[in-house]
Structures
1.
Amino acid sequence: MPAGKSRNIPEAASESFGSKFGQLIKRRRGQEDLTQPRLALLAFGDEGKTSRISELETGKVVKPHQKTVDALIVALNLTESEIERCYGNEEVGKTITNIAKLNPKSLTARADELCQLGNALKRARPAAITGMGGVGKSTLALEYAWRELENYRVVWWVSASTQYSVTSHMVELARSLQLKELGKTHSDGAWLEALRDWLRTASDVLIIFDSVENPDVLISQFPLGKSVYVVLTSRSPASKTTFECIELDEWDIATSRIYIEETLGEQDPLVCAEISKMLGGLPLALEQGVSYCVETGCNVAQYLSLLEQNAEKLLRRSPQSGSEAVWITFEISINKLGQYNSVSLNLLQTISYFPASPIPLHIFDSDASPIGNLDPFERNDVISVLLKFALVKRFDLVDPVRRSSAIDCVQMHTLVRDVAQSMAPTELFQVAFSCFCKGHPTSPRDPKNFPEFRVRDNVIGEFVEHCSKLSMDDRARLVLTMILNASFKWYAESDARAACKRSLDAQNILVSMHNMKNVDVLMGSVKRNLAGYIANVGDDYSNKKEVQRLYKEVADEVRLKWGEKDPLYARSLVDLATVIEQSGEEDASDKAISEIRCAEEICMHSLFTADNDDLRRENIKMLSEVKRRLASSLLGSRRLANIREAQSLVEDALEDKVIVDSLTDLELAEIHMQAGMIEWALENWSEAICFFEKAEKVFADHLSESHDNAIMLKIGLAAVKQHKVGPWAPIDH
């Protein structure tokens, strides 16, 4: 609703409208740094009418007068979406969010900090929650988000421990907002640019950046409108000139005791005090200790004894901003878990080899998993043990693009992950990798697989970083997975740069592998794909040269390792010829023809030396493909002698019964079409029509009308019938 435009307040909505409108006025007045008298002067032209504003803000006015509403809308420049929310036309369920309700138990004595956080955001300044690891920064931010969820249109949680993670989460936000029409290429960069434009004018948006390494650097990446609110958590101090800083302290002894007794009942105050001292008053450590007591049935005195037994270990550790105490509590719990339920321990330690991001539970539904092929009820029992020990969180992750689909996930705190991994057998890394590969989608172009690809995308980086732990066969499997994910980045998101990054990582892994022929095949595939992605990053000359260089590398590597007579080398030369022709160089046609002639010689040699019928048939088919490719290049050169050679090559192919019998109907039709193009170039009109019509009959049964070959054939046939000179007419006729 444009500012100043009247709208009648419906009776049914009046009660909630008055309260919500008053809250909105109070929040916006704080953002604009306006006193009530100043706002009264702007809205009503009279400072003496501050009582109207005061009564609205305190909720005393059930149904404000329409003229009052209109005046305040104009004075504060309120947006249509803000007013719509007050009228109740936007349901709470429509809030766009990616956070899960986790019911944190460690919010004892944080009421003041919650209030401080709310007040900071009312002043429209970014809020930074800082403190040592385990002090409850993320818990505080999460609880605030859930309490205030209905007051925002968007609440988005961003794991900000790495730049890659920030980009990934913000791109997901752009997708969930359906901003794709603002970015034509749908690359990560385009999505982020669309999101930045949207953030400049957006309203009622809360973004939480969790585990930020450098607060000042991160906040500069995104321009924020007046009604876009930012909370970040960090162990690093934040600039007080940029942020409203909320530093969380450890709990004192009294608060720690209150927290312990809330769950375990009345306890010996001296024992509680000693536990608090040993754990440094860290909420995460105390939460872990209480969960241990609940699950194992031990009392606080027994738990204190366990801590004292591990005290020497605690002192031996170098200081890590308070995380040592948390580390010890997790070690105690994980050791007990091993005695309590070995299957749950195996699952926990396997999950520890994944990154600290949501992990889909269904990837463990296989014989290769650490929990075996359990039914859903048995699997729930295994996971429930981890939940009771407070070692993982479980929630449904809603895919931001397909809002109706949810993926059952678990996630563990970074500190839990580090402790569990330090105690895990190294062979479980291999198990984790097998689980990841087992359920990985294999069709990156199929939209139904996109949510799964997105969830798994963050996981790949962990295995790439530690690929030295994998066997050679598993490294090859990892490369295949990376090839699929690079394809997904391109086909689903049109992000050529991200696809290039995945392909370069795959190439680096292959370089580290042994001298095996399947490695060369994979390297060829990676480099050809990489060349294609580079070609789509931009259309400048330097990119085309880089593509050509990559294809040349593939061909040279194959020649050096497998010899210049290997059929794999012939295929590499044909691929190289294709990119040479696309380079736009002056002598590109001659260079391409030269490479294909070399490939033809290799195929002839392979055919003559073949020692069995299967290999001979395979070489005949390959030689036919190379000759057809040579004919295309000869035709494209637009030189009369070359075109006549192309005519001879195609005629020979069509007269060779062995070749014709090895072709499918569609492949034969494509040769007929090629023959028609050659005859068209030579202005042999009747022959061209004959070949085109043969191809037309097959294309009608096998290709859609929008297929490139079908379109080209239709254009060619119409032109030939009118005796129009074709695009390949010889320039030296």
Note: The CA atoms of residues 53 and 453 lie 52 Å apart.
2.
Amino acid sequence: MITAAPSGRPVGPRPWSLRARLLAGQLLLLVTVVIGIGVATELALQQFLVDQLDGQLAGAQNRAQMAVSGPPPFFGPPPSDADSGPQPPGPGSVTPRSGPGPHGTHVTHPGPHATPPGSGAQPPALAQSPSTARTSTATPQHTGAQPPTAAQPPASALAQGPAATTTGTPQASGTATPTSSPGPEFLSRPGVPPDEIGAIIEGRTITAVGKLGSDGNRTALSDTAERQLAAVSADGRSRTMSLDGLGRYRVVAEPGPDDGQTVLTGLSMAPVDATLLRVLMVLGIVAAIVLLIAITVGITLIRRALAPLDRVAATAYRVADLPLDHGEVELPVRVPADDADPRTEVGRLGAAVNRMLDNITGALSARYASETRVRRFVADASHELRTPLAAIRGYTELAQRNSDAVPPAVADAMGRVDAAAIRMSGLVEDLLLLARLDSGRPLEHEPVDLTRITADAVTDAHIAGADHQWEMNLPDEPIEITGDAARLHQVLANLLTNARVHTGPGTVVTTALESDGAGGVRWQVRDTGPGIPAELVPEIFERFARGDSSRSRHTGSTGLGLAIASAVVRAHGGDITVTSEPGDTVFTVHLPQAGDPPESS
């Protein structure tokens, strides 16, 4: 909740300046764009890398399927019976020759196009695959005998590798049987990348599973990871999985060559994640640098863009510091022409301020001219009224000297005319004094003993109001200031007269004089009367201000006494204030100790 301070300004969170709002909006827009670009870049790069990994995964799956299914035959389908008859030796044919073999064995060496003697069909061994031929063991050959046919190993045995195949002859004693590593054999084929996993699943049971390490050895997987792989559907779709102990993998499973068999391969997504992380870090660093540059450039540009607004505000502040409440007012301050270009937003504001200042200048000039005419009229009228009023008072005084020669009614009328002339003369003198003060006519400028003036004014008030109680508080040493002694005496006399006239008999009126400790003096007139109405306090020093609405003349007040006191105090460079409550009304006059009075306006 925002509350108001005694000065009138709201107290609460400080509002954001226009610069801060513009900079915040610019940064918010830039951050939004950077985040959008970063997210789009990460998503597009991730999709590209995953697609690239899926291509590698498809190649790995094809190699695994070929390894599990076995290689195709090298010579095509078996020959037909029509081609199995004896063929005459053609040109360039070589007759097989026999001779002693190594270690005393007899071996027949066929030529390039020779067939075994005594047979019209090709030997079955030619239809075997190279892997089968590599697994067969050479036996002694006899002329005209068919070589034995080696048994073709099953496809699953091929997937397990050479260690699962058998030879046609017993192994020699003393030869060790090779042991297999965890996982299917196709993981050990050339071209398989590190961290690739492979599995062969029979039904829901994994018969071979493993991972190729970076050192080229196959390692086993945890039981949890094996169960995760066993649950993969053999639908040929690539999917991302988080395997226990391995991290994220891209895996694919397809049906194998045997019924109920599934071949599964997987590639690690660690390179993809590392690439995305590096790109994200690069984007973050670039975004931070861009934001720092944007803040610097934004502050500079905003400051330059709002500089005309600062100059307009400075012009308004200079006008606000000018004294516009009295005297002839001139407003030479204007917004510069460069900042008053109506084609720009700030220029339109500057042009509007200049128009406002022109209007204010015209209004103040008209007010000053009107006040000048009124002051001149009052001064002229007061001056012109002094002569006839003096004549009236002279004739009434002359008539009152012979009051015994006239009827009593005429003598009373002459007395009333004389009283009214005296009162009117006082009013004219007051108006003439105010006119002179308003016109800035300089006062006397000489040392004044305020202690003596205070004593004289209180003595005069005691004589005029004997039914009041008059008290004084004076300093031990006399206090002097520079000013007009007659006008300062009039100020204190008007304050004491106001206290006497507007309070009842028995009221205590205390006059105090003291130094304020800051090079000035302070006069105070305090009374214990009924006080001043609260609605009258703000205008108590205005001209013709009265406490009684009937404007009664029985007190002899003209309503100008406090106005004259305020004008004289201001002419001496001081100020006058009042505080009032029932039983305690205080008028305080503050005057400078010494120095020239303020310049007239």
Note: Residues 1-8, 81-179, 549-553, 595-601 have pLDDT under 50 and may be disordered.
3.
Amino acid sequence: MDKVYDYDVDKLKRGDMIQVMKDLFGEENVCNISTFNTFSNKVAIRDIGRVLNDKEDSPYKGMITPELRDLVSKTIPVIKKVDKDGNEIEIDVSLKDAIKGNDELQKLYKQYPMWFEYALKLSGLPKSRGCHASAIMVTPKPVTEYCPVCYNKDGEIMHQAEMHALMDDIKLIKMDSLGLKNLSIADMTLKFAGITWEDVDINHLDLNDRKVYDEVYKTGETVGVFQMESAEARRMLIEAKTDNIEDIIVVNSANRPGTKDSFPDYCHNKLHPYDITVIHPDLKRLFKQSHCVLLYQEQALSLLRYAGFPEVEVETGRRAIGKKKENVMRTLRPKFEEGLRKRNWNDEQIEAIWNLLLKQSEYCFNRGHAVAYALLSYLTAYLKVHYPIEYLTACLIMDEGTDKASTLLSEAKRLGFELNNPDINNSGMSYTPNQSNNEILIGLGSIKGLSDNGLNTILANRPFVSMTDFMTTAITMNKGDVVALIKSGALDSLTNKGKIDLFKQYYIARFNAGKEGKKPIKKANKTNIKQLFDMGLITPEQQDDKEYCTYIFNDHRMRLEWAKFKDKYCQGTELDWEMEVLNVHLSGNPFEGVYLPDWSKVNVEEEGWVGGVIINCKTNVIKNGKNKGKKMAFINLGVGDVTFDITVFANKYTQYIDLLKNGKCVVCRIKKDSEVKGCLQSIETLEDYLNRTKYVQEKYRKEN
């Protein structure tokens, strides 16, 4: 690879930056870069299964149903790792290993060997062409003089050749223009707060603000904080008792496969500076910046220089570490040992430091990159502490419609902000902060189930002065849109009679318009009148009053159809509806008045009960041991204003997989690790728990 330049930019302004590049280098000299997507294990299983199920001469014709394909695909594990930028990514495990590590897959493999054999051959092969998310190619002459081009799905030019061939063989320049969501969040926060980037210039910002460390990093309350939101990062911040920018840099660097094992040593050395053990005394000087622990690429390179390597060979080491080439690293060993012996290192010391250095080739973070990301992390934490409502609102806007939204909504409630239901007349597209009242108004665009067409119809016709006024528009909209609006509370300001009444008004409007079930009749005939008489709805004297009979018939039909409508769309409580369409409980707490044993009285290593809402559930694949290849999970449980981190091991994951869903109200029996951490022993829905403890709950309510 000849030249690669990386820079991060506000995600919402990435297009503007690319246009700047085109203005600088020429429109025809800048283009997107192709990527080649491969068949993952799951996709190979699904695609091969579909062909074998549909093909007439297949031995499995009609046997590999969509349900079976879906089941097998979901059973195949993936490994979740942190990439070089700290983002969680999924990586396929070997399909053979997945089959070996799962009894159900082994059984299916024996039943459908051809299906799995074909999938094994297909997995990893190119499937389709895509466009690189950040990379841009810059050429000295028009791109078409170097390679053929095509259009991506957005109608933009991209080259057709394989990326590394262009860089390594033709020596073209690639620029990585990565759009960072957190920069967009920071920019949005500044606008909400009425300040500018000059007010938070990182070159002049106080990096020793005690509130930032005490309220965010030391406590692990890092929801919305760049690079520090994962359970592992939070654990590391707490363990290090983070109180300075260097700690943040270290966590950002150490939360990687190649350096994570060194982190406990960093914490010990930082917190116990008079009890530091090093392989050789000289390392105290070489690794002083990180409390005598090898964490950064730059430190690894300084170690090579210390061993006498010239800069040309140091560069070889840098490339080996950067590209994870362990075989190249091993070629450096003889000279490395020789250089250290000249500095009076013994064989045991040399072996120990070499093994540590070799681990760098797995992945060691560049300190320069770590510093930049740590400073951005600090900036986001600073904004969260000093402009909390503006910052949380910006986070919600950028993560609208994602699984993370529920976590952010819970965080807003923890910080004491009032979350208000969407309002059909006052809500914008997204969230809006009200600093004076400490309120965040949820946007109409946050309502799950409200389509773009429905949203545009509302914006074009509002304001609505009453439910009757809204009904004129409602009957022209998709039914699902209006149902979502009612459940979200967006129409509450149009009535004081409650949501069931709103549903009924909407249903009657649709019935009268002939859009709901059986339509109203225009005039009762003899058959209709006989039906009414047989049901006892009219008297003999009323049979000749056609107008009255028509009214009674339509009223009876409407009531019957309303019962069906209500049964279909009005099941559950208003709290259930809020979680369904908004991912949060706003009008109350489902656990209010529920008795649970006092968690605070449970000792560490003992079992206790906690109840809450699952706000996030992440699965992982076990890499080693008897459960290798099986899945486990980590769930964040919202318990009042506190978030519990609960580990779900493989056997419990398999047993309770159907309950481990975001938004579920559950009661967990967990083995206590700390006040907010534990391992799952059992789990049940709140409804099942209340039924099981019915008499205890009744006694509790009477006493309270």
Note: The chain has four domains: 3-180, 183-370, 414-580, 599-703.
4.
Amino acid sequence: MIANKLAHRPRFPLQADTNLGNFRYLICGDNSYPDPPYGLVNLLSEGWPHVLGSNLAKLIGQHMSQDFQTFSLPRSDLEVLKNMKHLKDDKELTSHLHYQVHYVNLFYRIQSCRGSSAVKSFAMSCLTLFLLQCIYFLEGRQTVLRRPRESASFMGEQLVIVGDCGGTNTRLVLYSIVPNASSPSRGERAPGALIFKKRYKNEDFREFKEIVSVFLKESGIDILPKIACLACAGPIVNNTVDFTNLKGGWFISGSDLQSFFGIEYVQLINDFLAMGYGVLTLNTSECLKVNEALPQEGGVIAVIGAGTGLGECFLTQDPDNKKYTCFPSEGGHCDWSPHNELECELLNYARKKYNHRNRISAERIISGNGLSLIYEFLSNVKFPGEINQEVYEEWKASGAQKSSIIAKYAKTCSLCRKSMDVFFNAYASETGNAMLKWLPTGGFYITGGIGASNLEYFTIDGKFLKTATDKGRVSDTIKRCPIYVAKVDDVGERGAHLYAFELLKKKYSICKSSSMVNDPKRQVPYSETISVKLEYHVLTD
């Protein structure tokens, strides 16, 4: 009996600051975990701590006027038991360790108080299972109240969550990774076996935690991931981010996600830091070459990508070890400059819409939201007589997916086609601007879902290349920089995967060198950031 296993431990009462290691020892004695009686578990609950708590609270309530009347329990203990049924989620359990402290102390008081032995034994069994589940949950072992699947054994590999969290969609991927695997070569993805992946629309969720909760549930895993690396669309400050292009705004904190889900470490990185490392995994078949320029060995690499917003970054190679390091930027928020009369009118329209008197950022035009703004301007101001009513109504009803409607009807709707032309002219101009800033002789990469889904706009009549390189006296300089368009839309996800692999590898090497691999009582700190410097060579064709 579990209750008998617990009866001999005398170290009570516990204090509210009791750490998890001591807490586990006081309940289980050593590092072993007693097997719960599954018949009782199935009778009591579906498998979560607060459900067990509710059942125990109901038990107390049912017998309050009978056997429990004779129990010598303080009123505060009865209040604790009553409150168990109000713990609505696991955050309330994991964020307040003193709850478990109360329950452990209460266990011993129930054991020693007067009352019906049958009811008392049943109450102690409920409470014991509840406590054990808390321990398993806090340590990422959610299998205590359900039989673990045999396939859940990963033979030394570690589970890692990789995320590409944009303004419209969030892609989450679960990998099983061997920490001491070799780093990838050019054109190769980071090591890891794919376990589960899913894309979610942000507008379907109130907050980011809901997406992660659904993902973990749908993945069917029985153990929590070791690390999560999330590439987020916004500036990262102290491992937190405010999403800049999400209606209503989301705030994500890495440390909050750690404590809420029990993941050992959550690292947030800028989405274009991930995008920069992601282009290093692209092979030649995954890139459309726009011009004939050849890459220069060791040259600067730069990246631009239009999605919900507009991102830019660059990578430089260390001359000694030949390894690239990525540097994100907020270049998408530089001023946008029109090229013709139509674009000047668009600029004035955007100024009024966003209440900006002096400027409009490039991201307001060159992004999914920008493409929607262009269509809105052409429909409402310039060419209302060309509106296709069916397309227009579908566009209005499409929420955060408006840009995809415009691209969808570009071949059949004149306003959609004109919108795409204006958009890609502006995209080409900003491509040239970014190339002027960094002179990416190692390669300039255009990434993001809009580019990958509309490759023909980069080659039609050479318009894109002509606009991009139309930079007056220095046009010949940037013509020497090779331009590639990524044909795939998971570049950011790949970069986050690579970054997560290096985090895990660093953690493993620290543990190994410190002889702490199997010592759960000692914690190895992670750094807030990590420089993922990998040796790569530039594309040659």
Note: The CA atoms of residues 65 and 403 lie 64 Å apart.
